[in-house]
Specification:
Layout lengths: L3 H6 L1 H10 L5 H39 L5 H34 L18 E6 L1 E5 L3 H7 L5 E5 L6 H7 L3 E2 H7 L6 E2 L1 H19 L4 E3 L4 E2 L1 H7 L2 H6 L10 E2 L4 H7 L3 E3 L6 E10 L18 E11 L4 H18 L4 E5 L11 E9 L4 E10 L3 H6 L1 E5 L2 E4 L1 E9 H11 L1 E2 L2 E3 L5 H4 L3 E2 L2
Parallel strand pairs: 2-3, 6-10, 9-15
Antiparallel strand pairs: 1-12, 4-5, 7-8, 10-11, 11-17, 12-13, 13-14, 14-17, 15-16, 18-19, 19-20
The protein binds one RNA strand of 84 nucleotides through α3, α4 and β9.
Length: 440
RNA sequence: GCGGGGAUGGCCCAGUGGUACGGCGGUAGCCUGCUAAGCUAUUUCUCUAUGAGAGCGAGGGUUCGAAUCCCUCUCCCCGCGCCA
């Protein structure tokens, strides 16, 4: 939710932000018109209510003195019917006003590159030493701005799908029989690896002042709608039939909503949360993409970083979250690039977003494994999360970032650490897995 | 699932039909060698703001007037039942 007063005072900022995103200014203009009418109705209503309160109190006095007050009662009835009429009209205005307000996106950070489409996402940096098949050198160098270090592979590594099959780690066919496409049975040492990844990421964050939290895996419509946007509802969320409950698509949402309607002590800030949960996604907008294997699936585990802080500190924390996610990938020895999303690719909530894309040598591509966003005070305003300040209360800023999503990270490990048909386990995980190789 | 009790400002708590009492904490000021104490004001949201309106878990209803009475729903506590 945008700051309505800021919008009234300075619509230009919001129109500019909308236009950078490739939206029109219709929403802003339509909001301003509705808002004007809303305020004028509010004035009428308040004047009538004031009059009503005065008469009602006078009736109270008369009743005490046992005087007749039937004239006053009749007057209040008249006022009531006027109020009722305006209220009915106002309810419609207010409904449309909030619908339009919900469509206005967050203000974009000044440094976000103005552009549309993936191609305009800005390269920030590369880390690591990638294994690149001869045919993919051009793709690799282009996407790493010529800064990516690499060694050439003379043969393409096996796809994770074939490898899982050969090592009997994933059963997709039986999962399809039981649950449909994009589901899987995870087996043997790959399951152990998954658990190791989760434990490792939680420990990593606990060492950095994050409080580990397991949230509810289902949420009601009201908090969900405040924590996210309409796109997520349309494309990601599973609804429980006959109940007001949705399966979470990320722990970001229940964690954000955790502090809704609360006023925090500024001393408590920043609040760092390391959340772990399964994530359920319909992938409705992804027909035909990544249909094989466990790269894009309906359920996976994710360790998520979440921060509640003061708005003015949020930009430093965006860097902290990104640095943490990078440190995890570095410790797993996975080469990656960081990209800064262009204006047209941001969600309505995001003021700025970095993605981290690991190099997948079998696919010959960089693919998203981490997404780190600063939603400034936009999400907190919808959820009504404030902190106390000397001159009134302010909304907190909320930030979220993947620490580690299990399925994609496992695919990255399988593609990057293939060794003669076996999978080498990254060193930092060995204490958690208890083995250093996955083989047939 | 059944029965009983509950939800009031940041926190605690009073309030059986006349417009939310009191305390704690926070903030600002006064006072005082310092600190503490004490005193005063303030504390949520909205608006066209020296003023006004809304707000007592949510939504409806009755009434001139509802925290209070009635209905529906949500959540919490206690007991019973069921259960990994």
């Amino acid at each position: 939710m945008i700051d309505v007063r800021a919008l009234r005072e300075n619509p230009k900022n919001f129109i500019e932000s909308c236009e950078k995103r490739g939206f029109g200014k219709e929403e802003v203009e339509s909001f301003l018109a509705l808002d004007e009418e809303w305020r004028s109705n509010l004035k009428k209503l308040n004047d009538l209510r004031k009059r009503k309160n005065q008469i009602t109190q006078a009736i109270g006095e008369k009743v005490k003195l046992k005087q007749d007050s039937s004239g006053e009662k009749e007057e209040v009835r008249t006022i009531n019917s006027e109020i009722e009429a305006i209220e009915a009209w106002q309810a419609g205005i207010e409904g449309r006003r909030s619908e339009v307000a919900a469509l206005i996106p967050n203000l974009i950070h000044d440094k976000v590159f103005v552009g549309k489409g993936d191609d305009n996402n800005q390269f920030v940096r590369f880390w690591g030493r990638a294994r690149v098949f001869t045919d993919d050198v051009e793709e690799f160098s282009g996407k790493s701005n010529g800064k990516g270090k690499y060694e050439i592979l003379s043969t393409r590594p096996m796809s994770h799908v074939d490898l899982e099959d050969r090592l009997d780690l994933v059963d997709l066919e039986r999962a399809a029989k039981v649950s449909g496409a994009r589901f899987f049975y995870l087996k043997g040492r790959l399951l152990k690896l998954e658990q190791a990844l989760v434990s490792y990421a939680l420990d990593f964050l606990a060492d950095r002042a994050f409080v580990p939290v397991e949230p509810p895996f289902m949420m009601r419509y009201d908090p969900m709608s405040k924590a996210t946007d309409i796109e997520t509802f349309k494309e990601s969320l599973y609804k429980i039939e006959g109940e007001d409950l949705y399966l979470i698509s990320t722990s970001e949402h229940p964690i954000a909503a955790m502090l809704s309607d609360e006023i925090l002590d500024p001393e408590e800030l920043p609040i760092r949360v390391a959340a772990v949960s399964p994530c359920f996604r319909r992938e409705a907008g992804a027909h035909g993409k990544d249909t094989k294997g466990i790269f894009r699936v309906h359920q996976f585990f994710k360790v998520e970083q979440f921060i509640f802080c003061k708005n003015e500190d949020s930009w430093d924390f965006l860097e902290e979250l990104t640095a943490n996610a990078e440190a995890i990938l570095q410790s797993l020895e996975l080469p990656y690039r960081v990209i800064d999303f262009c204006s047209g690719e941001l969600s309505r909530l995001n003021a700025r977003k970095y993605d981290i894309e690991a190099w997948f040598p079998a696919q010959g591509k960089f693919r998203e494994v981490v997404s780190a966003s600063n939603n400034t005070d936009f999400q907190a305003r919808s959820l009504n999360i404030r902190y106390r300040e000397k001159n009134g209360n302010s909304f907190v800023a909320t930030l979220n970032s993947t620490a580690l999503a299990t399925t994609r990270t496992m695919v990255a490990i399988m593609e990057n650490f293939q060794d003669h048909g076996a999978i080498r386990v990254p060193k930092v995980l060995i204490p958690y897995t208890g083995f250093d190789t996955i083989f047939a």
